[in-house]
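P.,

For your records, the input lines for the assembly:
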Amino acid sequence: MNLILFEASEISIPLTRKDARAVHLLTVLRRNVGDTFDAGLINGARGKGRVAAINADSVALIFTWETPSPPLDPLVLVLGLPRPQTARKILQESAALGLSALHFFRAEKSEASYAQSTLWSTGEWRRHLVTGAAQAFDTRLPEVTHGLSLPEALSLLPNGHHSIALDNYESPQALSAIALDRPVTLGLGPERGWSASERDLLRARGFLFAHLGARVLRTETAVVAAVSIVKARLGLM
Amino acid sequence: MNLILFEASEISIPLTRKDARAVHLLTVLRRNVGDTFDAGLINGARGKGRVAAINADSVALIFTWETPSPPLDPLVLVLGLPRPQTARKILQESAALGLSALHFFRAEKSEASYAQSTLWSTGEWRRHLVTGAAQAFDTRLPEVTHGLSLPEALSLLPNGHHSIALDNYESPQALSAIALDRPVTLGLGPERGWSASERDLLRARGFLFAHLGARVLRTETAVVAAVSIVKARLGLM
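Structure tokens returned:
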């Protein structure tokens, strides 16, 4: 937790002592009454928190908001719903890397059971975004959708992006060989890959196909690798 | 386990049924007597294994070796000893990404306790390399040292490499701004960063300093990001 993040609804009420942020403040950062710390308002400003009081059950905090966070990077990910444990890592890494949106679509080769995970049904997914943003010292969270079909997810994409689908099987070129000079949408299949009809749909929507070399990477590694290569090409990393 | 890897000492004796590879073969891949699977000899050839017999306590395998694995990528990592859980991820990711060597050095800002971890004392570290190589469908493992000082680690580095130290605090340029046309050695500090004397030593050895942008990344994410950017610049990804 490089930046301790709060929802707008939380900033006028004390934190319970059991809240992970209270534990972090008091036991890791060892803050006492009067001490300050780096704080952020989710999707809002960064600033300072100050410990106003430490009670038996709660910690009272006072905030001073300073600078707005800069906008997220013009990078969108569309990816086939992976197993929940993989999705958790991708949510956190994507927020840390500053993506502006993530669309997890129901791929033909996704396991249907993945969509039933408590990750999605309990809202747990948002917690992983907050962890990633806090790590990166940012307040902004990527927009996330899950459970859409691929056509529905594609219909949400901004115009004017380079659109690149990663595919280790049917790609004529490496991702590094594609010249990039404007925002990028990256498509990734689920762990078992794109179906033929998904490939056809992506081609019809103007996606180029690219690979990440001959090595078979885990999905979460491929996400960090591809996003980093794209950010470097855009001078953002 | 995209490729099931074996030590040279293991290929003429049956696998015990409790071995994770036997469990994977019989319960995930559902192989029966006579069936084949993709196998590799660690640091050697790839080929096929065949299930010769399934006994109460063991599985007998027969191998046919076909093609040698291509050499690893000309990329070396020198990094300050991180906490063991972070080192585990870096070992696995580095092997999956095809680095040829990893040197974990005792940094001034590394916690001394990290070096005492069973990760290093039991040889567990090598298991994470095997997992990463198997994921990437490779047989080759990076060379690893741990416990050297920074001068000792630097003395092991090959000549003729671009040498780049990542540093979010004192870098004049982004990693993406550095032109690369030959093998690369990347230096990363420990989680708490480089010391002043370590920075001086790196500069004296010709390291350029570069950053990965304004976002604060976990060490394991920074490793995947930096390696991917470098591999892309060299046309390897």
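Two observations worth noting. The helical segments of chain B are 20-28, 84-97, 118-121, 124-135, 150-155, 196-204, 219-233. The CA atoms of residues 105 and 185 of chain B lie 14 Å apart.

Regards
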